[in-house]
Amino acid sequence: MITNEHIEQFIAQAHRVGDAGLTVCSSGNISWRVGDEVLLSGTGSWVPVLPKEKVAVCRLETGEVLNGVKPSMESGFHLGVLRERPDVNVVLHFQSPYATAVACMSEQPKDFNVTAEVPCHVGAEIPVIPYYRPGSKELAAAVIAAMKDHNSVLLRKHGQVVCGKDFDQAFERAMFFEMACRIIILSGGRYGTLSPAEIDDLETYVLGKKTP
């Protein structure tokens, strides 16, 4: 059951995203699973100054709107990712300056692992999704498919999507995604990336995923 406290927390996190420069005006959207229901920023809403009357509440399984507020036109992939990923509770679609510049390049980088934070938090592999019209079923299907086994994706000529177990994890992924793209842009393309062995070393000793 969604409470007023849930809504206030959701609004505070939306404003945090805006304050960090991850969204501008009506760009981007955010969702949060609470039990069997999902809070979503409303269609046309400005995430940086999201008001209570622009917070939609939907049923996770059916997408039924429970409070009369129309959710973001990207609700299809928000709900789809949450259905496919029981380990995920927050989905964030953002359009930060450098990561969106990379999304609009004629050729996207094949490797974003410029610092250890990228494979540790954003993902050693970041799928690049072809351009589909924002809000389209094709875009939703592509994002859902890519995020079944990835936590971050780049949308060509559009933006980015990350997910997380909570607000902090999704926010961290978005911020390090933007940091990596800032390095890529500011280096003028003259950047190095971690080798597979260096990433494997991180997985062993930092993330504890493998036995030394």
From TrEMBL:
Organism field: Barnesiella viscericola DSM 18177
Entry-linked PANTHER family: 3-OXO-TETRONATE 4-PHOSPHATE DECARBOXYLASE-RELATED, FUCULOSE PHOSPHATE ALDOLASE
Source species, domain of life? Bacteria
Q: What's this protein's name?
A: Fuculose phosphate aldolase
GO molecular function annotation: aldehyde-lyase activity; metal ion binding
Q: Which residues form the Class II aldolase/adducin N-terminal domain?
A: 8-185
Q: What is the lineage of its organism?
A: Bacteria, Pseudomonadati, Bacteroidota, Bacteroidia, Bacteroidales
The record's GO CC annotations read: cytosol
Q: Does the keyword rRNA-binding apply?
A: no
The alphabetized UniProt keywords are: Lyase, Metal-binding
Regions crossing the membrane? none
